[in-house]
Every structure is written in C-alpha cells, then in structure tokens.
Amino acid sequence: GEALEVNREVNCVTDFIHGCEDQLQKLKKQKEKGLLYGIPISIKDHINCKGHISSGGMVKFLGQVKEEDSVIVQVLKHQGGIPFVKTNIPQTMINYDCSNLIFGQTLNPLNPQKSPGGSSGGEGALIAGGGSILGMGSDVAGSIRLPSSFCGLCGLKPTGNRISSVPAPAHLAAMTGDRPFVLAVTGVLGPMARDVDSLALCMKALLCQEMFQLDPSVPPIPFNEQV
C-alpha cells in the first residue's frame, strides 16, 4: 500500500509483481529461513521477472513477456526475499534522469521539482519515498550511485562480475547490434537501501552457493565478514 501511495506522488513503479503473495505463503511453510526472509524487494525494470516485460523504456519490448526469472531474482527468492514491484528507468537506461514514453517522468520524493537521478531512478524514488526498504538497481556509469545521491540513499556498485547479470538486458544487445557493450566498464547489478547495513546484508545474501551454481561465470568468492 505504501508503494502505491509513493507511486501516486512520484510515478516510480512500472508493474506489480503478481504471485508475490503466493510466494510469501510458500515461504512461511519452509523450515529454512533465508537471510532476506519476508523482505519485500523492488526490482529495476530491466531485470527479468517471470511473467513480466523488461521494457528498458522502449516500446519495441512491450510484447516480450519473460518466461524465467533472472538469476538475481531467483537468488533473492531463494533467500526469502519477495520481489513485489518493478521500477521506472529512463529510455535505454543511458541517462541521468528517469523518464520514458511508456511510463512517463519519475519525480524526486524529496523535491518533486527535481529529478530522482538515473538510470535506477524509480528505485531511488520508491525507496526514498518509503515505498520499499531494499531494491536492486544496476550501474555502468553511475546508475545506482546517482539516484542514491539525489535521493539521499545508500547504494553499492559492486566489483564487475561479482553478481550475476544473467540474462543481460536484451535492449542493450539491440542498441549495440549484439556487440559487447562497453567492455572496459562492466555493467553490474547492485543493492540500494536507506543504510549501509542493508546493503551489506543484501550482498551477503546474494553471494551464496545458489548464485554460484546458477551462474558458473561468477567467481565463487563468498562474502567476507571482516571487510
């Protein structure tokens, strides 16, 4: 309800992830409680969720409903997290604002005259507005760090290839004609939240056996408590 309230004010949510209530009921019956047990998690638009589109803010992808959760969404669910909404991005995601022709302009909840930043702007706006406590964004050149800064949040751009980004967003392949996209600077998925402890907990949850098995291209280096 909180997320819908924030969305009415700043237009940050693109989709509600159906099935999240069923997932909660399933979790309650499990003996093993994951590190993110029962935490609702918002997901940036381009990260695949089964039964939903990953538009990248582009009309050409509106008909393509994804048949599988991306690895990161599978791991979040494995750890008891509940992906519940998808959040807005700028068209093609290579922009420091957050607007596209499908879902419109996302505003900054701290000041609706301002941008929430991009490209994970929907995440920034939703979390800063109180509609989510943990979100997954992505960053090539500031797409987690800028909205975190603009919205007064904490965000982490992990080391390249530390977290699975399988499957990579189709629209990046489309834009680059299937050429490797910005090879020198790896695009990565990463957490956004209101405090550093939440980011650390999320990273600890993601760096688990489940992720290393689902995506063997990720080096199986566990979370380092001391660091």
Automatic annotation (TrEMBL):
GO terms for biological process: fatty acid catabolic process. InterPro entries: Amidase_CS, Amidase_dom, AS_sf, Endocannabinoid_amidase. Residues 5-220 form the Amidase domain. PROSITE patterns: AMIDASES (PS00571). It comes from the Eukaryota. Keywords: Hydrolase. Belongs to the amidase family. This is VDHAP protein. It comes from Pheucticus melanocephalus (Black-headed grosbeak).
